[in-house]
Amino acid sequence: MFAYEKGSGTPVVLLHGFGLDHRSLLPLEPTLERSGQWRRIYLDLPGAGGSPVDTIHSTQEVADAVVRELLTRLGDEPFAILGSSFGGMIARYVAHELRTQILGLATVAGVFVAPHDQRNVPPRTVLAREPLIEPILGGAVEQYRQDAVVESTDDARAFMQFVLPGIEGADKHALDRIARSYLLDSEPEVAHPEPFLQPSLHITGRQDDVVGYRDAWNRIDHYPRASFAALDAAGHNILFEQAGLCSALVADWLARIAQEDD
Question: Where are the domains of the chain?
């Protein structure tokens, strides 16, 4: 798998959402850089960016491929992991399968219930429209508006820089194939029911009509060392719409991990 790496020190692995690539998580890079000695490993999942899909046909096979990739790259070195949306589901799987070397787990608008028709999501809501985004986005305006809750010109520019390139570069046929087998064989918290005791973070959006917030919060007892946040004025584009709060929460998560190592 292709990985974009920055920095040195303790590894923190970042996994992007479905149909995107590693660039969608680069808005977190300034926070990670300021947070100390972290080797940031932004993976492109199979079918995205620089990572070929090979023979992968399902989410389970994606998850297993990520485990193999990280064992090859890191061996038995301890690491933290963060995943967004679909990447959040994969991150939960990795964290439970490799629990003995996991320093911490974070999800941002993470998938906690895979079947779309079984998710507990709020109704589609748009809190703010911004007509000035249209000349910025051009033909991509509808793609941006699929998830936008609070439209802004800054978010539109971020979408063009960090999100749209991954959408346009994705292997659509491979993603369609994976989407037909979107479920893991077993939910990580079910396959490994012992409470997950490493410092954790689960950020959700109150207006996120893609994955919602309730399904993540239903797992709160499984994560006794987790901060859970449901942010208002935030949908599935939460990293843009609530950039400051996401940055502060991720910085706090990394600081809690560092304290555990002291």
Answer: 3-127+170-261
CATH superfamily of 3-127+170-261: Alpha/Beta hydrolase fold, catalytic domain (3.40.50.1820)
pTM: 0.96
Token pair, residue 249, equals 């929460």
Q: In Å, what is the CA distance from 128 to each residue of 135, 145, 148, 233?
A: 17, 11, 9, 9
What mean pLDDT is reported for the chain?
A: 96
Closest CA to 238 of 207, 195, 196: 207
Percent of all residues in the chain with a pLDDT value above 90, rounded to a whole number: 94
Q: What is the three-class DSSP state of 2? A: coil
Instruction: Give the three-class secondary structure for 4.
Output: strand
Give me the residue label for tokens 């346009």.
Answer: 168
| Closest C-alpha to 162, from 152, 154, 150 | 154
Sheet with 38-43, side-by-side order of all strands: 3-6, 38-43, 10-15, 79-84, 102-108, 200-205, 226-231
Q: Mark 32-43 as b/e (b = at least 16 C-beta within 10 Å).
A: beebeebbbbbb
Q: Map 105-120 to HEC letters.
A: EEEECCCCCCCHHHCC
Q: How would residue 262 be classed by pLDDT, with cut points 50, 70 and 90?
A: low
Sort strands 38-43 and 10-15 into parallel, antiparallel or unpaired.
parallel
